[in-house]
Write a structure and sequence with these properties.
This protein has one helix spanning about 1-20, and strands at about 25-30, 30-35, 50, 60-65, 65-70, 75-80, 90-95, 100-105, 110, 115-125, 130-135, 145-150, 155, 165-170, 175-185. It is mainly beta. Bound molecules: 2-acetamido-2-deoxy-beta-D-glucopyranose (8 copies).
């Protein structure tokens, strides 16, 4: 009986801990890493955040050097990111009210690119309608999917493509064209 109670207690605490102190990390544009723990609403107390700098060889953890603040409270940490570290595990430790929450993160597929920029439309000689956009970088491994509709017809999607332009076939002056862009965030 005691064993069962102990087990329930531990699993309840584990569940509660992961719900309220879940650290989520995301590689931003392969430039830096954003870790945050404010998804369940802003905490009303500061936490301390440690990480292993993607170094699984050593057991050394160091404190966050650039905290992200929200309404005067720390809600996240900005970490440096080296591409060489992308297949290694990030270990984080959040210390909140004397309790420690340790997590392991595999960030290989947790990459968010900046959205496409400089969206522009060009009509040439009333016969060619071109849509252009720019990726901020890594255009070789980014894909975009163009969604468009003519007048108020259904939206159509084009296959994700690497090109940073789309030419509307047989455009007509009497139609209304609407475009949508959807950043595909999978790289590597
Ligand atoms: C914690 O965050 C990760 C990554 O966003 C998510 O997959 C997981 O379901 C979350 N866990 C809880 C208990 O919210
Ligand atoms: C990084 O995290 C902070 C704090 O949660 C947030 O305000 C910011 O928008 C995030 N940056 C990106 C690019 O998601
Ligand atoms: C939380 O941390 C921030 C940044 O270090 C600090 O400015 C603020 O005073 C702290 N708040 C509390 C309640 O300790
Ligand atoms: C944290 O630990 C210190 C020293 O053990 C204790 O004095 C303090 O009351 C604890 N704080 C909380 C919020 O449990
Ligand atoms: C694309 O980027 C925009 C602007 O940051 C964002 O609002 C939108 O949610 C992103 N779409 C996807 C599918 O990630
Ligand atoms: C547009 O029309 C002009 C005159 O007919 C022609 O010289 C020019 O080459 C055309 N441009 C394109 C991009 O088709
Ligand atoms: C950005 O888009 C313009 C056309 O709008 C194109 O000429 C230019 O080469 C693009 N720049 C990059 C860096 O892709
Ligand atoms: C968008 O256009 C501006 C002005 O031409 C340019 O400075 C900027 O680098 C472009 N952005 C991208 C992502 O190509």
């Amino acid at each position: 009986m005691f064993g069962i109670w102990l087990f329930l207690l531990i699993s309840f605490q584990g569940y509660k801990a992961s719900v309220t102190h879940n650290v989520t990390c995301m590689v931003i544009n392969l430039d830096y890493v954003n870790c945050s723990w404010s998804e369940q609403g802003s905490p009303d107390m500061n936490s301390t955040f440690f990480h292993n700098k993607f170094n699984t060889q050593k057991n050394h953890m160091e404190e966050c050097s650039t905290y992200l603040l929200e309404q005067g409270y720390v809600v996240g940490c900005r970490l440096d990111y080296e591409r060489a570290a992308r297949f290694r595990t990030l270990i984080t430790k959040l210390v909140f009210q004397n309790k420690t929450y340790e997590q392991k993160h595999d960030l290989k597929d947790r990459v968010k690119l900046y959205p496409p920029a400089n969206l522009s439309l060009e009509m040439i000689n009333n016969t060619q309608l071109n849509l252009y956009w720019n990726y901020s970088k890594y255009s070789h491994c980014a894909e975009s999917e163009v969604r468009f509709r003519i007048n108020t017809n259904d939206w159509k999607s084009l296959r994700p493509r690497q090109e940073q332009m789309y030419s509307v076939p047989f455009p007509s002056n009497s139609n209304t064209y609407e475009f949508q862009e959807n950043n595909n965030t999978d790289v590597e």
